[in-house]
Amino acid sequence: MKLLKRISKLFPKINEQLKSFDSASTSQSVVPESRLFLIDLDNIAGGESSAAQLMRAQFEEMVQTLINEFYPRSTVEVRVYGNLAKNKVAESPLYRLIDTPCVTREGKTLADSHLLWDISQAYYDKRPITVLSNDCDFSVHLQKVSESGHEIHLFTNSICKSALRYSSAWHKDIRWLMVRELNIPAEEMARRDLTGLVQRHQALEIHWVKKLLRIYLLKGWSNEVSEYDLMRLLRRALPEYQLAVNDQLLSLQRR
């Protein structure tokens, strides 16, 4: 009984020490003015496509390019989430790598859970947030954060659903940066985006393909791409397919 009384007296002191430790560590590690930049590595540069391999090989340069282009005067903390055994990138003082190995036979990781948790923490810490991902699973969370008035930016670098693109009031498609600044061939970026589509569809609307590929050739979506430029890029990107345009449809047949 005496021992229990002594322990009960110690509890308030222990709680006070823990609270002071938490507040001290928080004040040291979190700078409210700093931006938290979260990168979904497996989604934006995962897989064995040439474009993905080139992005991973130049990953530090890619991150530095984005910071220089969009946040030249800001303090930015970068966290990168991914299966580093499968999608390896070089370590750098520019970012912190957070390894999320597979937890299921299908190859599912906990990267999404880690990323969503850190978005929530940054929201409560009132830190501006940037997310680089093409994953539509984040759209609801990003939309709610954006609607609250919190500053949250979204970068994408591949085809993604409109629900994700419109989930943030600030969205940039950075594929043109991959081509212009990292010298990743436009045909490799196009091949990464189109391979899955052409396997599911034998024909694509030509105006949609022109809109898609415009981002590799030009900075932005406003200028027109000629049919000649379009077909030249597609032939380089998909050499194993025979391409033909008929009635504003692009037909693709494997050779």
Explain what this protein looks like in three dimensions.
There is one protein chain. This protein is an alpha/beta fold. Helix content is 49%, strand content 18%. Residues 1-11 and 13-29 have low confidence and may be disordered. The protein is built from 11 helices and 9 strands. The protein starts with a helix and ends with a strand. The protein is globular and about 55 Å long.
Provide a concise account of the structure shown.
Helix 9 (186-200) packs across helix 11. The chain has helices at 2-29, 41-45, 50-57, 59-70, 111-124, 139-147, 162-165, 175-180, 186-200, 206-217, 227-237; strands at residues 35-40, 76-82, 96-99, 129-132, 152-156, 170-173, 203-205, 241-246, 249-254. The chain is of the alpha/beta class and 255 residues long.
